[in-house]
């Protein structure tokens, strides 16, 4: 089940966006602050220029300062932003020589100006102001009294400049983000290109092409490509196994069919009713053998096909054994044997299994026993509990199997060295496959004093 | 006895016809779902042999239709599909028995006989096998027409065996019939079985033991 969980592109984009936004916010704050600083510096120097211009216009008449405010100074003060301006020239006593507004100059400011030029912010007339004050000595004149010059303006110009500078910074930043984003998109396309190539390679493959990959991939995709290669190798193996199995199977089917063909052909050439009868008996046996073989091949194919274990459930092995045995004991093929059930343990024994497969398993065990033992043989099935395992056994008092053959008895088409019966050698192979699906162990051992005992050890389900 | 065979393979249909006619039956055969469905709507049969994979429909649908109409004619399903699911589904839909292809004709004949016998018993309340007959309303058993004087437990045993005639009667079921649900010795039942065996000697009937499973009342092979 493939569930699409977003795209790699969107994941990369989200991370990129988060990073860019966080860094961008910091950058913008910094840009705003530095725009503000730049605007302050620019306008502060204008205030200074205005103050100096006024200072040059200060005259002394009879020891008192007189000032005619030059138009240039006012022009410097008044920026193009409809600002209100302020100037004041104070004498040494703090008396106003000239001023355009009744702006209160605080005493501590005046003291500071004694020492050095002052820049300060203040509120007046319902607006924020920036003020600059400096002191001039009347050097070269008869008095030595300094004058203080105060100039100031409202903040509109500064704010406007700050915004202007800030806007430029923002524009530069956005253009950069845009360009970086486009480059990232390009980079992603280039970086994800090997993936696209891998996809194309997979798409172009023929359904039965199981060869390993022949592709250049970056380190990150190596694991994926190797996993795919392993998968292909498994597929190749199972396809080869299937081909081998099909070849074996058709060989096995062809043998009895060839027998049928030649027998019927000979009978058709003959004119003896006795010959016909003999041939018919052979044809009948051959047909029976072939159809049994076909159904066994079908079970094996089904076992190999159904792999997900979706039909597994908790079941009472004793009940299943009883039910299957009832079915088999009543069949025609079992009438010449003594087929029976050993007494079952008192408590039900539950295992985790697939009913159809277990019936198939039991059917093959019983069928084998009936087929490979002489009429009148005693065949007994039963269950024994060993700790957290349950042993399902079937034992007979037939001729048994040579010890050297026991180990390979569960290989397909192995008939325990017997050619005298109509078996196909598939029975125990099917049993073995089913046992493995159920995590059960298969054990084939001689039964004392004679015969065979086939045991399957199933883990008990809690 | 009228038998209906719904089977599309001509070879199988012919051999079914040949095998079943000597049992004293008239056998009618259809190869298509539509024909069979029409015939079943107008005619009554004693037994239907139904193939599941028909060229123009599924035999299970036909069975479903039949049972929906309340028709209880016994149905024996014949099919090449031997998956257990199909089997369960067929029996759920009301099939009486199930035989997977390929089957031996002897097996088929035995099943047909058992089904016909069961359908007969349903109508006249009499259980019979070979020379043995049991009237379940009066509780009287007869062998070759002569009444058998049997103790109560042997009557119950005989009835139990006859109810399953032709197939294995589980041992537990017979024990419950004879002794109730209490604990009984393991060979208590065997005692009654051997008594009944003695009575049946020479009648052409025998009781076969299936170790650990149960008993079957059957006709001795000639």
UniProtKB/TrEMBL annotation, chain A:
InterPro entries: 2CSK_N (IPR013727), HATPase_C_sf (IPR036890), HATPase_dom (IPR003594), His_kinase_dom (IPR005467), HisK_dim/P_dom (IPR003661), HisK_dim/P_sf (IPR036097), Sig_transdc_His_kin-like_C (IPR004358), TCS_sensor_his_kinase (IPR050428). It comes from Litchfieldella anticariensis (strain DSM 16096 / CECT 5854 / CIP 108499 / LMG 22089 / FP35). The keyword Transmembrane applies. This is histidine kinase. Residues 248-462 form the Histidine kinase domain. SUPFAM superfamilies: ATPase domain of HSP90 chaperone/DNA topoisomerase II/histidine kinase (SSF55874), Homodimeric domain of signal transducing histidine kinase (SSF47384). GO terms for molecular function: phosphorelay sensor kinase activity. GO terms for cellular component: plasma membrane.
From TrEMBL, chain B:
Keywords: DNA-binding, Phosphoprotein, Transcription, Transcription regulation, Two-component regulatory system. The keyword Transcription regulation applies. The modification 4-aspartylphosphate is found at residue 51. This is Transcriptional regulator. GO terms for cellular component: cytosol; protein-DNA complex. InterPro entries: CheY-like_superfamily, OmpR/PhoB-type_DNA-bd, Sig_transdc_resp-reg_receiver, WalR-like, WH-like_DNA-bd_sf. Residues 2-116 form the Response regulatory domain. Residues 124-219 bind DNA. Residues 124-219 form the OmpR/PhoB-type domain. GO terms for biological process: regulation of DNA-templated transcription. One of its GO terms (molecular function) is transcription cis-regulatory region binding.
